[in-house]
Design goal:
By secondary structure, this protein is mainly alpha-helical. It contains 5 helices and no strands. α4 runs antiparallel to α5 (153-175). 24% of the residues are buried.
Length: 184
């Protein structure tokens, strides 16, 4: 929970001005993230509609819908994982702020860099495993264990793509300070 501006996040720059390639990558990823956020918002609304339809259908018509739970889960998985890079770009993920006030600005920059490197390592492993799962699900033709039987490659690809975008966002945040731009 934030009660005010965090000292290590006060300097925000719109783009990495120190390097044209990094600035272009940052702008491109920003545009991609903004488009994904709009699509994810529509997916969340669709999940709400599907689940509401399911509740009303069961209550009013006593009809079982075997597809709605999986459809809603697929939509929510896509919205969650695909927007992770946008949230990271805003530095909106949960962080522990206990040390921010105790450390010097230089120590905070090092701390943020180390956290970003550790986060990138974890997310890269997660993305790699997600792509592996997606490939196996695609090659083996894996489907869910329901009457609807949608392909499991769908949520795995959404997870993998979202984690790959998150890795790209974190990598940019690691590289940007070395280009001479302010850390975001």
């Amino acid at each position: 929970m934030m009660h005010g501006p965090i000292p290590d996040q006060q300097e925000r720059s719109g783009a990495a001005t120190g390097n044209a390639l990094v600035a272009a990558l940052q702008r491109g990823l920003g545009i991609c993230n903004n488009v994904i956020v709009v699509i994810a918002a529509m997916a969340l609304v669709a999940a709400c509609i599907v689940l509401s339809y399911s509740v009303l259908g069961r209550a009013l018509f006593h009809s079982a819908n075997y597809w709605q739970d999986e459809a809603a889960v697929f939509l929510l998985v896509g919205a969650t994982f695909m927007t992770a890079a946008y949230v990271q770009g805003q530095r909106g993920h949960v962080s522990i702020e206990a040390f921010v006030g105790l450390l010097s600005p230089r120590a905070n920059r090092v701390r943020l860099w180390l956290v970003d490197v550790a986060s990138l390592s974890f997310c890269a492993f997660f993305a790699w495993k997600s792509w592996t799962l997606a490939h196996e699900a695609w090659v083996d033709g894996q489907v869910s264990n329901s009457m609807w039987s949608p392909p499991l490659a769908i949520p795995y690809v959404l997870m993998a793509a979202g984690m790959t975008l998150l890795c790209a966002q974190i990598l940019l945040q690691i590289v940007i300070p070395f280009t001479g731009a302010a850390r975001r």
